[in-house]
């Protein structure tokens, strides 16, 4: 396997172990070529049924940490990885073309380090890590989260459970950053994952484990997508009848700080628009998480609140209807708002309620925008790269 023309091979030495020679077209470890994961660089869909066999012996797990400019959080992440109660694990860090101290920090841990010469995105970084993996189970962990000490054990137990081939976790209810926006974002994610059923139809890139042979058979992450690549892989797995377990006890702590502008930009361009693209592409939406009937009703209530609040400027009589819409919105998500109050008091309750209504409204804007973009086939790839 030779490197692509114009791309120079990148050589580096991990913290321990052999030299790794890496090419964008594939790479070699100890002069033994690896078979690349059949990713979506070439495009095309797979419609065959996937068959895998579970081994009776305990499965070895490879933890893969993609990292891009993650110097601020990678150390904490790897500290938690190497603090697991189960120690029989391989760890691979993929530096996705970082320009900060990410590579330097990773070199201080007994992990295999793969460095990409340019930023290719989380999908490509995870795929390159999977190519290097020796474990039968791939455990993908984002560089801005920390694991609980029993995470590895929970992953093994879930994968070895009959009927499940993949497992996902969720954020915990104690995010590191205590700003109101960060608490809102993380607690909402935690709540909806905790109150969904154990059968999931999507993956969660920050905390996902999957059998390696299944990952390869499905084609890995779609590298054309710079967002929602984890959800897309979940769609493909579910379409093939693969069962994905949502383990409510498999939780990670999110280290990211959210600001309002970042929240708005992310939820519209990297959530609502690509989510809609996946819905139009595959023809169905998940029933769990925040897509259930209750959440659809809450979205309608939020739209009514926005419309009635505007109407009250001209028709004060609309205040009664506005009050009813507010009561309905509060009732539909009473569990979520109760969590906000318990974790952040009255301030988080009020801010969280308002941000949740705003979330429904700007997500609807993203939905309409995505449908409009989808009408022009040549522009569809942009929906995953905004």
What does the secondary structure layout of this molecule look like, with pairings?
Elements: E1 10-13, E2 19-23, E3 26-29, E4 32-33, E5 61-67, H1 74-81, E6 89-96, H2 102-106, E7 112-116, H3 122-132, E8 137-141, E9 145-147, H4 151-160, E10 166-171, H5 180-194, E11 199-200, E12 207-211, H6 212-218, H7 229-239, E13 244-254, H8 260-282, H9 293-311, H10 318-332, H11 334-374
Parallel strand pairs: 5-6, 5-8, 6-7, 10-13
Antiparallel strand pairs: 1-2, 2-3, 3-4, 8-12, 9-13, 10-12, 11-13
Description:
The protein folds into 2 domains: 10-35 and 52-258, Alpha-Beta Complex (Spore Coat Polysaccharide Biosynthesis Protein SpsA, Chain A), CATH 3.90.550.10; 289-384, no CATH class. Helix content is 43%, strand content 17%. Strands 5, 6, 7, 8, 9, 10, 11, 12 and 13 form a 9-stranded mixed beta sheet that branches. Strands 1-2-3-4 form a 4-stranded antiparallel beta sheet, with helices on one face. It is α/β, with parallel strands linked by helices and 386 residues long. The relative contact order is 0.12. The longest helix is centred in the last third of the chain and has 41 residues, at 334-374. The chain has helices spanning 74-81, 102-106, 122-132, 151-160, 180-194, 212-218, 229-239, 260-282, 293-311, 318-332, 334-374; strands spanning 10-13, 19-23, 26-29, 32-33, 61-67, 89-96, 112-116, 137-141, 145-147, 166-171, 199-200, 207-211, 244-254. It is built from 11 helices and 13 strands. Strand 2 (19-23) and strand 3 form a beta hairpin.
